[in-house]
Give the backbone structure.
Amino acid sequence: MREPRPAPIILGIETSCDDTACAVLDGDGRVLASVVSSQLAAHRPYGGVVPEIASREHLSNWPLVSAEALERAGVRMEDVELVAATRGPGLVGALLVGLSVGKAVAFALGRPFHAVHHLEGHLYSPFLPPPKTAEAAGALPESFTGLVVSGGHSSIFHVEHGVVSTVAETRDDAIGEVFDKVGKRLGLPYPQGPKVDELAELGDPTVKKMTVPFPGDDLFFSYSGLKSQALLEIEKLERRLGPVDLSSQEPQQEVLDLIAGFRAAAVGQVIDRLERLHRRSPISVLAVSGGVAANRLLRRELPAWAAERGVDLRLVPLAWSGDNAAMIAHAALLRHRRGDAGDPFSAEAESRIPL
Ligand code: KG4
Ligand code: ZN
């Protein structure tokens, strides 16, 4: 006998970039299963994501990934009562795979379908329960400030009763993108962000301090200046030390210090913008999400910053910081709770869409 689960059982699908992900949640926001199949090996030879390869990998991975998610959740496909898939932003060919599968499943089962914005998934992900627990999702505050730091975004949002308004965005590169580019220049394999973070732990950030740009009265992020500064510093270093290629060399201390200086400025900019915002209008709840929310320095500095100011910090559990489908299913559950009946099957995949 199957135990009854709180309705609705939600199937979440995420294929916006290079992870094929499927998750099953129950109506209390419990994560019954979350499977993420990484395509790292397929893209690594190229140093970044190749869109055509991503689409093909999603197609071939989906049957196994979905079967595993359903099996782990102890749910049959016909038990699914709500289907959600990411519609964008992301790589159109990659998005199309998950979106088409989601629509097909919802149509076949006669269930509502939600075409979810990728950032909507990240934004609410700090309220997901930690992985491998039987906990329900946390209650959503009436209003909160959301910081999303990822490979595609460095953004601050204000969320009030499900209505999202943008407070700050990047004028150029996103924070994660710059971690990746600096790491790539150093010869690190894709995705470089986590590795740059790991190496920064071994360096002294005070040796090669880098600049946090000053936005005047504004709050916008800007990371292209920091990227150029880091790349220039690498060039300078190479004139003295010879070529730096961490794919075949052990990093010298000067390289580690440079990386640490870069990371300190990247994270420093996040803290700076939060401080400016907090001074302007005090933040009560801060929900932090996105791939870069896994950054070790950010995860040390944010709790200290928040505690000193009495800000209620909700830092996304590590398991949900990178792309996953639990956050997509969760976003659909929140929509469902707000009385949203779902999207038409004509919802299209889009590479760029505002939240
Ligand atoms: O949210 P995510 O998985 O995908 C996007 O929506 O972009 O974020 C991926 C980004 C990549 O740029 C990756 O290098 C970065 O997050 N990232 C990190 C760390 N872990 C992942 N950046 C800095 N430090 C980390 N520990
Ligand atoms: Zn993402």
About this structure: The chain is about 40% helix and 15% strand. The first helix runs from residue 40 to 43.
